[in-house]
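Dear colleague,

Thank you for sharing your sequence with our group. We've completed the structure prediction you requested, and as agreed, I am returning the results in plain text so they can be pasted directly into your records. Please verify that the sequence below matches your submission; if there's any discrepancy, let me know and we will rerun it promptly.
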Amino acid sequence: MKEEQLYDAMVELAERLDIEVVTGRGDFSGGYCRVREDRRIVLNKHSLLPTKLRVMARNLLQFDLSNMYILPAVREFLEMVLEEEGEQILPTEEAGAVEED
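Please find the predicted structure tokens below.
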């Protein structure tokens, strides 16, 4: 799967978790945040695509994805990031199990 397709699939996964993916300019790498009731993953517009993918993966891995269907290529990428950075990934306070319909 090409990086662009992987990015699109990860955005779709975030949307299924009711998380909006937004990009902006600034001196930041990105991450998960809440604005009132809205859940967001913010990405730096100027970051390279591989960096955006890792930021998205680190933040999606904070949630329990065990009950969700995830494309095999996306799951493989998430597992790779978890293996490489697992100790640095901490669950969010709201990262309980997510069930899909």
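Summary note from our side: The first helix runs from residue 3 to 16.

Kind regards,
the structure core
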